[in-house]
Amino acid sequence: MTPIYADHNATTAPDPAVRAAMEPFLSGWWGNPSSIHRIGREARAALDEFRYRMAAAWGCKPSEVVFTGGGTESNNLALLGTTRLLRGRGRHIVASAIEHHAVLHTLRYLERHEGFTLSIVPVDSHGRVDPDSVVSLLRPDTILVSVMAANNEVGTLQPVAEIGRQCRERGVVFHCDAVQAFGKRPFAGIGQFEADLVPVCAHKFHGPKGAGALYIRSPLLPHPIQHGGAQENERRGGTENLAAIAGLVEAFERFVPVPVFREEPLRAWTGRLAEVLRGIPGVVLRGHPEERLANTLAFTVEGTDSIALLANLDLEGVCASSGSACTAGSVEPSHVLQAMGVPDAEANALVRLSFGRDNVPAEIEHVAGILPEVIHRSRG
């Protein structure tokens, strides 16, 4: 049986054209961009070209592009680097309750070990942040606000542009984790998020793993968190991975300006499965009914847990997730659902189906056909 892949929010398969763009930097142009000899200069010229291409795709200055090792590193650099830079102005941070652990765990670290204070913005029952709730938590010593563009577990979209404008009016740095939005939502330019810091992760839109970038609106210059060299305009020490950067830039140019996740069929497919799930007692759809990623369908099942549900789906050839891939295998209730007011017993029975370009209608019908039996078996 060929598996049905319904876990595109966790990762996507590298595109053949992306792999082809990476290959020259695995065999030919292998020099160190920091070396002054000809082979090094060739690598440096390629790195500079990639930075200009990414800046053109984002609609920003090349100096505002920092290449990283992925979304987690980008978030850590944004949060740790900026708060340490601005700690003389204040030590108060505001973040939504449903941020990815790459954000929340980093902010909790600052709270526990570096003397910062963290205020958590609540969300409604659909997992949506009210901009007024963010503004109400701002204080004279607030230096940073963090709200994601699209939630990775339930797909709910956030009003980040409005939040970003409110922060800018008050002189507060705004960080927007947009990792799940790229390739799934219309993209007109990095400025659409109205954010000072925006991370990007290549493997969410058919690029390679271990490749990311961080947009840093000038003149902001966060402290580096990785030391040992002056690379990336002294923002990230370490020899640049040209092959990974080539893959990131190629994937972004191909799959983000015209989103690779096509909204019309994806919304129809998740709608079809939602219709099936509504007919099963004890099943509750999670996330916003309209303001959500079109490819994402999240639900909980009364009387079982995520591990049983995912195991039974896997037996039927369906690859799904219980939410963030970074917590796969965990029996902890989803922190996103807890923030939405879902009881722990239900928050521990979350399934996320996330579809992509390689899925076909027949696969959706197969999933629709097996869901009732899978849920019945999991309860047993």
What secondary-structure arrangement, pairings included, does this model have?
Layout: E1 4-5, H1 16-22, H2 24-27, H3 38-58, E2 65-68, H4 71-86, E3 92-96, H5 101-113, E4 117-121, H6 131-137, E5 142-146, H7 160-169, E6 173-175, E7 197-201, E8 212-216, H8 231-234, H9 242-255, H10 263-278, E9 283-286, E10 296-301, H11 306-315, E11 318-319, H12 335-339, H13 344-347, E12 350-354, H14 361-379
Parallel strand pairs: 1-11, 3-4, 3-5, 5-6
Antiparallel strand pairs: 2-8, 7-8, 9-10, 10-12
Helix pairs in contact: 1-9, 3-9, 4-5, 6-7, 10-14, 11-14
Distance between the termini: 25 Å
**The named CATH superfamily of the largest domain:** Type I PLP-dependent aspartate aminotransferase-like (Major domain)
CATH architecture of the largest domain: 3-Layer(aba) Sandwich
CATH class of the largest domain: Alpha Beta
Beta content: 5-15%
Mean of all residue-level pLDDT scores: 95
CATH fold topology of the largest domain: Aspartate Aminotransferase, domain 2
User: Element order, helices and strands?
Assistant: EHHHEHEHEHEHEEEHHHEEHEHHEH
Number of strands: 12
Query: How do the strands line up in the largest sheet?
Result: 4-3-5-6
Query: Main β-sheet, in a few words?
Result: 4 strands, parallel
Give the total of domains. Answer: 2
- Class from helix and strand fractions: alpha/beta
Shape: globular
Low-confidence stretches: none
* Tally of helical runs: 14
Q: What helical percentage do the residues reach?
A: 25-40%
Cα-based radius of gyration, to the nearest Å: 21 Å
